[in-house]
Amino acid sequence: MSNVVTFREERCKGCGLCVEFCPKKIIVLGEHFNSLGFHPATVTNMERCTGCGICAWMCPDVVIEVEHKPDEQKLGERNETLA
Q1: What is the pLDDT of residues 15-45, one digit of tens each?
Q2: pLDDT confidence of residue 33
Q3: Could you give the CA distance from residue 62 to residue 24 in angstroms, rounded to a whole number?
Q4: What letter does residue 74 receive in the DSSP assignment?
Q5: Which residues contact 28 (CB under 8 A, 6 or more apart)?
Q6: Please, what is the average pLDDT of the chain?
Q7: Helix/strand/coil (H, E, C) string of 4-72?
């Protein structure tokens, strides 16, 4: 299972709560500015993300979405086993 974390950068106020509470410390505030004038949060190493969702829970503006996607290779192996 792979995890995808998406930030709605244009709505992020750069409060840093997701950065502070990420257990893997893979979220940082970007160096660029969004249209609101804030440094939006982003994930630096998606492969290390466990998909725990703490970042999304902590975000007061609901700009973070965590998705769990099945790995394509494992899905193919599973289908072969079922056949």
Answers
A1: 999 999 999 999 999 999 999 999 999 999 9
A2: 97
A3: 20
A4: H
A5: 19, 41, 42, 44
A6: 89
A7: EEEECHHHCCCCCHHHHHCCCCCEEECCCCCCCCCCCEEECCHHHCCCCCHHHHHCCCCCEEEEEECCH
Architecture of domain 2-82: 2-Layer Sandwich (3.30)
CA 56 to chain centre: 8
For residues 9 and 34, is the Cβ–Cβ distance under 8 A?
yes
The reported pTM is: 0.79
Side-chain half-sphere exposure of 42, counting CA atoms within 13 A: 12
